[in-house]
Each structure stands twice: as C-alpha cells, then as structure tokens.
Specification:
Distance between the termini: 71 Å
Strand content: 15-25%
Radius of gyration: 25 Å
Strand order of the largest sheet: 2-1-3-4-5-11
Number of strands: 12
Shape: elongated
Largest sheet: 6 strands, parallel
Structural class: alpha/beta
Amino acid sequence: MSISTVSRVVNRSAPVAEATRQQVWQAIEALEYMPSAAARSLAGRRTATIGLYLPQISGAFFASLLQGLEAGVRENGYALLVRAHPRVSRNGQLSGLPLGEHNTDGLLVFTDSLPDAEIVRLHGRGYPLLLLFRTAPAEAMVPSINVENKAGTRQLIDHLIEVHGYRRIAFLRGPAGNEDSAWREKGYRESLAAHGIPVDPELIGEGNFAPQDAQRIVADWLARGLHFDAVFAGDDEAATGALMAVRQAGLNVPDDLAVVGFDDLPYASALTPPLTTVRIPLETIGLLAGQQLVSLIQTGKAEPHILLPNELVIRQSCGCTCA
C-alpha cells in the first residue's frame, strides 16, 4: 500500500475500496500501529491544543475558572495546556515562552501573565489569542472577557452605606496594574462620592488579592488605632486575611467591624461569619473563553469584548441577619 492510501483510510479523508480498507486495518491491528500525534500535528499544522497562561493554579478562584475552561475546549476536541508563573508587568520580559504558535493552536492569557509586546507580536502573526480579565493593548485588537467590576462594587458599597450607615469604609487594592482592582476602586470611589463621603487615603491599602497581605494591612490599621466601620477587601481571598486580622485583634465581625469581599468563591458562605460578596460567574467565564477561542481558531471570528454581569450576595459579615 502507498502512504497516501493508508493515510486516506486512517484519516477517513477520501473514499477507499472496501477490500483495501479492510487490508489496511488488518495490517494496523497486526502491527499494533499507533498514529503519531506529533507527526500529524506537524503535517497538518494543528496541535488540537489550547495554551493557557496563569499566574498560579492554586486556590478556589483558579479551580473554578479551570473547570469552565477545560469544559469549553474539551467539547470542541481540544486539550488544555497550562503554564503558570508569577505575574509580570505589561512591559516586562519573560525568559522563555513555552507556550505559543509552535505547540498550541491558540492561547488564553489571564490578566498580566504575558507582556503586551508578546501579545502584539503573536497577534501580528495571525495567531489566535483571547484575554481574560484584562483589555487588549492599543496596538492589537485581541478579544477579551471580563465582568462588570465597577457596577458590582458600586452596589456593594451602596449597600454598606445605605443599609448599615457605614461611612468609614476601608479598601484593599489588588496587585498593581490589575484591571479588576482598578475598576473596583473606581466603583468604591464613585459610591463614596455619590453619598458625599470623602476618600481617606489612610484607609486604602495594598491587599494584593492575598490573605497574608490583607491580614498585615488590616492588623496595622487596627494597631495604629485608625477608625473605620467596614473593610471592602477587594476580593474573597483578601477578605479571609481581613477576617483573621480582626479576630486576632479581639474584635468581632460584624458587631465591631464589617468585612466584605468580591468573587463569591465556594468557601465564602462557609466562613465565620458567612461573607457578603459579589458573585461572578467564574465557570461561565471559563466556558465562554474556551468556546470563543475555538471559534477564533476555526473561523477567524470571536466576540471582540464580552462583559458579564455579577450579583450582590448578602450574608452576615456586613451586618445583615440573613443566612
């Protein structure tokens, strides 16, 4: 048999006489032949693999996101290849980029996991990209998916002010340059301004979406005797650190101090007290991201920017008595 005939049988790419087809499959069974995925990828210029850059893969946030992402790519016959490394600045450089056009058909990029220069380069080569929780560089019209951070924060801070009468509300920022954090800070500032409450710079700290950093900042505020009624921790991870700091200071949440978060991670309802937060559809975001990138790979088309809504979830940590 010629190579082309065997290829047509194995790949079902063209009609082959039934007798010939049976002979080929008999030979395959006798020789225990297995097609080489690597060789087929090289020949077809397709890997059936989608790459994902993340700053880390631990924690409830990334577990929920990955579930949706994996489902979104798997349903279209793709595998997900994940590369985790610390966040980099948008203009920073990475030594070695193990994921790209040489071993994946497209790439998902979480926040600042890839420098802008590399995004622009890959986009310029026609390589499919989709950004998660960030917008595209001005030089590259790359599609993206995010949530409505500002409106969700406005609703959360409005609740603290209008329902509970809090006026001294502290805020813990996320990592420097993080777009989610920037939009949440805008929502925080807009809500204060709408209620005639001035922003106190002393009550804005660098929580970095990290429990340890949030705990340290809130503990320092309490040790210095700063007065505040509530802490908007920026996200649920930081909220856990804020809760620990308040508890270690001998105070009670929410009787002495309210603490609220953002994301509604799976453990938020199990904290003591249960955490008031803003729910974002993490698995849906992952699923849509996988589907949109597959569409971009296969058709060259994807939604330019998807902005998903969120939901205020009221629990006890803000002072409400509901479950």
